[in-house]
Amino acid sequence: MSNSTNTLNGKALVTGASSGIGATYAERLAQRGHDLVLVARDLSRLEALAARLRDTGVKVDVLQADLTSPADLARVESRLREDADIGVLVNNAGVAVPGKLVDTDVDRVDSMLQLNITAPTRLAHAAAKAFSARGRGAIINIASVTALMPEGFSGTYSGTKAYILNLSQSMSSELHDAGVQVQAVLPGITRTEIWDRSGVGMHGLPAEMIMEVHELVDAALAGFELGEVVTIPSLPDVADWNAFSAARAALQPNLSRAHAATRYGVTQAN
Questions:
Q1: What is residue 223's predicted lDDT score, i.e. its pLDDT?
Q2: What is the DSSP code string of the chain?
Q3: Which of 25, 157, 163, 264 is catalytic?
Q4: Which stretches of the chain drop beneath a pLDDT of 70?
């Protein structure tokens, strides 16, 4: 494969690979000739997917792991550090806990925080150290458009995805000169099992808002090749994102000043 900028190279490790977005990334990467390490809890599904993908001629390893388990997470981190053939991390595993915080089982929220924040952070850290030492690599973090709309969904779930967005943007800046490309993918409503697992389901959702998973992943990979740090597959005009980013940047000079803004009527300290 080419070593040019914005090109995926090497073996890919994909988390949450047993279904949905993760499985589709695995399929698309296998079609491109990438060997794979598939990570998920469901061993039977992983093995079935691996057998199917091996028919395309690529090598596929299965790594069963519950990423909320520190021991299992450590095994995946070790694989990222020690397997020099791995050049791509797809940080996809995640779960949604819907509903208002006051009505939610806080233990479920805590488990979600471990899977949606702690696990991808530790895996991104392991990959970043390994890839930057080799001078090449790609980290693809799956976030969500809810990162941009906390009032419209569970604040805990959208908060985890806002964290992944922030982490990705920061890592992209940190790792650019080391030859490591970082991308955050922000799916909208996508036809995957996460909806049924969350207990919400997709019944009643407008059809015009639901994207098929293969189209989502294909758009995300196209965004990677375009060099996008943030890819929103359903956004028609990238100028809208650029305007949002410019508005955020315009706030920065006034986010930390020696004195309170005059609109608060606070007397300056002597």
A1: 97
A2: ---STT---SEEEEESTTSHHHHHHHHHHHHTT--EEEEES-HHHHHHHHHHHHTTT--EEEEE--TTSHHHHHHHHHHHHH-TTEEEEEE-------S-GGGS-HHHHHHHHIIIIIHHHHHHHHHHHHHHHHT-EEEEEE--GGGG-GGGS-HHHHHHHHHHHHHHHHHHHHHGGGTEEEEEE---SBSSTHHHHHT--STT--GGGPBPHHHHHHHHHHHHHTT-SEE-TT-S-HHHHHHHHHHHHHHGGGSS-SS--GGGTPPPP-
A3: 157
A4: 1-5, 193-205, 208-209, 269-270
Global pTM reads: 0.92
* Residue 25 bears catalytic tag: no
Question: Which structural domains are found in the chain, ordered by start?
Answer: 11-239 (3.40.50.720)
